[in-house]
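Revision sheet: structure tokens.
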Amino acid sequence: MSPQREDYMSRQIRTIAAMIARMIGLRLSGETEKAKLELEEAYTLLLGPQAVLIRRVDAATAARLIGSREKVLSFAQLVEEEAEQESDEGRSAFLRERAAEIRGMAEKPATGT
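Predicted:
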């Protein structure tokens, strides 16, 4: 990976981390609508035009589409935050499980194809 690409990805990951921190603050202060808007912006920033698709596919496919381990871990963090924002307990549990699966995909050793 080129140094410019690595720098761009590092900045993107830092931006997502800052957005997650803001989301948590908004959620904890009761500003749930603002937190949800920030979450959607973060998904779009991280996943780009494939955001809707990646959020719908299984964890293994999502990890393959995203590519980098760091971005997959950021995606897992966003799904975890989405679970925290979710008021429906069943959906929240599903999202927590999905986040764990996604994180597991990032932690698997890379295999050659």
